Structure formats: structure tokens, C-alpha cells
Amino acid sequence: MNINNGKTIHSGAQLAELVEEIGFLPLLSSGIYGFSAEEMADDDCRYVVFDDGGWDWPLWKWKGPAVTDGGLVYGKFFNKKAGFVSRAWWPDLYNYRRHAYPTPAEGSIEETILLTLGEGGSMITRELRRACGFTGPKMRSRFDGYVTRLQMACRIVTEDFIYPQDRHGREYGWGWSLLTTPELLYGRKACHCERTPEESLIRMTEHLQQLLPEASTQQILRLLK
């Protein structure tokens, strides 16, 4: 596989440019060899731990600018794992997933999450969790499971990443996802697709088969479904 003509990614701008070109790109290992931002990043941009316990991971820091400046759609879209989708391909993924995943039932936790986001506009995960009443012990992983399913259904996307600051105003830590709905962030028109859900799935599958000739159809469908 030679998606990027053998070139590695050295910056957030290059990451955004690549996703615009190929349409879809998981952040971490996707199950298809070489098909992830992590595997395509230059060696100097990969995760490293320093002797003092600190760490650096340029790829991790590129996520926010790739979304806010590069205009990419980001969320847990690929077999419950995070990744990027170009705005050109987003309507097809949105179209298929809205058909494949059932509409949240009235009074369900998923509906409550979406209604809360609709009222709040954008909320970091822990604020959303608290607003939805998930404040007890062991509630975090359960709540995250609901949010992941809503991302797979293309009902929630990441708008940006928010980092805490130390007393010197320096950002630290892994950051928090600022969540919202695609309709609020991009508008309904940007999510509209003229094709049927099945046509969208076929179009995406054929595109990835051309992009990843060594991957099996089963591997590709695992990412798209």
C-alpha cells in the first residue's frame, strides 16, 4: 500500500491535506496495515516518553488544528475508533450511518444526550456526562459507550479539543473532546446526500478498495459499517 506515495506526514497541515485527498483516515491502527495517521506520521512525530516522565506526541497535537483549521470531521467513526473524514465524503458516511443505526428512542439515554447537546451547543465530555446525570461511580465508561455509539451513528462529532492549563497558562494533559452535533457545526445542507444509503455504502467501499487494493472487502466494510 502506498497511499501517500511513500511520503510521511510532518505537520497538521500535511495531515489535513492528505485526508482531503483520500477522504478517510483512522487516527490509530485500523486493522489494515499502514492505513492510519499514526503509521503514516514521520518517526520524529510519534509518541515518545522522556526520562522525567513527560511525553510528546506531535500527531496528537495536530488533531485540533486539523479539525478547526483544516475543516476535517473527527470522531469515533471507524469500528468505534477515532479518525478523520473529509467534508467531501462526510455526506455519504452520514447518509449510510443514519440508516444503519436506529434513531434514538424517545426517552432513551441517547436521546437525552442529543437533546442536552442541542441545548448546550458544544460541551466537553465530562460536562455533558454531568449534565446527563452520569455522576455516580463507574458511570464514566458506561456514558462513554453511549457517546461512542452516537458518534458511530454520525450524530455526534468533535468540534475541537480543550486542554487544561497550569498556573503559567501552559496547556498540559491529553485534553478533552468538545462535542457537538454535525447539524449544529456544519449545518444540515452540508450533511445532505442525494444518494440512497446503499449507494453511499457502495461508493465508499469502491473508493477504499481502489485506495487500499491489498485490503479485503471484509476489512473495508468493518471500517465503514
What does this structure look like?
- Helices cover 44% and strands 14% of the residues.
- The model has no long low-confidence stretch (mean pLDDT 93).
- The protein is built from ten helices and eight strands.
- By secondary structure, it is of the alpha+beta class.
What would the average pLDDT be, to the nearest integer?
Answer: 93
Helix and strand sequence:
HEHEEHEEHHEHHEEHHH
Rg calc: 18 Å
Give the fraction of residues assigned to helices. 40-55%
Q: How many strand units?
A: 8
So how many helices?
10
Q: How much of the residues is beta strand, in percent?
A: 5-15%
> What gross morphology would you assign?
globular
Distance between the termini: 22 Å
- State the low-pLDDT regions, or none: none
Largest sheet: 3 strands, antiparallel
SS-derived structural category: alpha+beta
Question: What is the spatial order of strands in the main beta sheet?
Answer: 1-5-4
Layout of helices and strands:
Layout lengths: L11 H11 L1 E3 L10 H4 L7 E2 L5 E2 L1 H11 L4 E6 L2 E5 L4 H11 L8 H12 L2 E2 H7 L7 H14 L4 E6 L13 E5 L1 H5 L10 H15 L5 H8 L1
Antiparallel strand pairs: 1-5, 2-3, 4-5, 6-8, 7-8
Helix pairs in contact: 1-3, 4-9, 9-10
List keywords for this structure.
alpha+beta, 225 residues, 3-stranded antiparallel sheet
Brief summary of the model shown:
By secondary structure, the chain is of the alpha+beta class. It has helices spanning 12-22, 37-40, 58-68, 90-100, 109-120, 125-131, 139-152, 182-186, 197-211, 217-224; strands spanning 24-26, 48-49, 55-56, 73-78, 81-85, 123-124, 157-162, 176-180.
